[in-house]
Amino acid sequence: MSTDIEWEKWGARDPYFSVLTDPRFRVNAMTAQAREDFFALGRMHVDHVLHVIRCHLDGAFAPTRTLDFGCGVGRLVMPFARLGGEVVGVDISPSMLAEARRNCDQAGLSNVVLLPSDDALSAVAGDFDLVHSCIVLQHIEIPRGLVIFEQLVRRVRPGGMGGDPHHLRLGRPCGDAGRAACAAGAAGAIPPGPGTALAARVGAWKTHEAGRGLAAGRYRPGDADELLQRKPAPVHPAARRRRRRLQ
Question: Does residue 65 have a pLDDT over 60?
Answer without folding.
Answer: yes
